[in-house]
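request received
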Amino acid sequence: DTAVSQTPKYLVTQMGNDKSIKCEQNLGHDTMYWYKQDSKKFLKIMFSYNNKELIINETVPNRFSPKSPDKAHLNLHINSLELGDSAVYFCASSSLNQPQHFGDGTRLSIL
Amino acid sequence: AQSVTQPDIHITVSEGASLELRCNYSYGATPYLFWYVQSPGQGLQLLLKYFSGDTLVQGIKGFEAEFKRSQSSFNLRKPSVHWSDAAEYFCAVADNNNDMRFGAGTRLTVKP
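response:
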């Protein structure tokens, strides 16, 4: 009964490729998020969606495109992957003014 | 925009000793404050939260934190640390739109 699930858990690919990470939550939350955690463990918000509408869009290259087909899913598509994209990407969800629940992360490695 | 500072990058304590991890926030209004823990290779688990009311909040695993508005702090404490507490700890502050910002984290090492 995983609350926030991300797939894949690991993703190894070559520079220049396009890849997607999927996220699903079964908590009935209205808002979903994507975070990037770099090698120094720093967590940075990338996007948030509320009921399929983009709410937060930090300074993220436009190679990153979130897609929310419904409020239970927020996928992250990345075009033309670069070495600097190597990181752990976390999906999270929440209701308004409630703590965010995190997935287990997707470790992306660019060769 | 809100922000969080965790002054200690790495802390080492002996098993059984007390622990305090520092967190200072910056936000113009009443903040929503959180502590999360991340074990190696894992996601983030919520330890405790402060929204309003009693400034001393109790969390899971024997942790507590105290909100001090005058010091803009939300320090995490535990009276007796266990070896399984070794992990990365993140303090976070959110506004009323749930836009949450994390501190840089404090890595806790527990000596036997």
